[in-house]
Amino acid sequence: MHITQLNQECLLHLFSFLDKDSRKNLAKTCHRLLEVFQDPLLWSLLKFHSPVELKKDNFLLGPALKHLSICWYSERVKVCNIEDWMKNSFQKDFCKRHENTVSDFLLDVCNRCPNLLSLTLSGCGHVTDDCILQLLKNCPNLRSLKLENCVRISDHTLEAVTLHGAALRTLHVDFCRNVTQAGLERVRAKCPSVMLRADRSANMIPDSKPEKKLMLEKASRKLVQL
């Protein structure tokens, strides 16, 4: 029995064990397997391990997508999460190459994946509050939003959660140093049903401008003397 003689359900099950590249390569072998690759039911879950993967033509976006994860753990993440004013010319050039990659992809998700249930972003230093706001507006069924080490995320995202996150049940803003304790308290007060976690976030000191950093150091020395 040839693989193409299997029914659609069996083929979808077999494809589900393959990574995105393997699925794409297998789909190139015949029209029958290409049909399986293009079946929206195959793409209810997407995981990416770097922004570069978002540009590959080896997946399908559509209403069937329920769970999305973009987690970048490379050493290069440290560059993206440096405040812009602190970056040297080399670092700025590096970031410029992919500055809008994740945000543009998420806006595409907003337009094509209204049934998204969970989103996890880690190390995505260029994702902005406005991008998350649009996602919350366009994906009203979103139940889980997990953000880690995303430097541009601030209290504006927390405010968007209170306004547009009616279905949200889990919110993580770990290592997001530009959210504040006041912002977290507003979420707790307005969205008591949301399981909120903010490890190493509101208590972190953001990268400071030289004059502000000097003031913090002076304050610390005075406390030591006392």
TrEMBL record:
Task: Give a Pfam family name.
Answer: F-box-like
Which positions fall inside the F-box domain?
A: 9-44
This protein is called what?
Answer: FXL22 protein
Keyword line = Ubl conjugation pathway
| UniProt keyword Cytoplasm, yes or no | no
UniProt key word Transcription:
no
Gene name, Swiss-Prot/TrEMBL: Fbxl22
Q: Where are the transmembrane segments?
A: none
Please give the GO cellular component terms listed in this UniProt entry: cytoplasm
**InterPro entries the record matches:** F-box-like_dom_sf, F-box_dom, F-box_LRR-repeat, Leu-rich_rpt_Cys-con_subtyp, LRR_dom_sf
Question: Known CDD domains for this protein?
Answer: F-box_FBXL22
Species in which this protein is naturally found: Rhabdornis inornatus
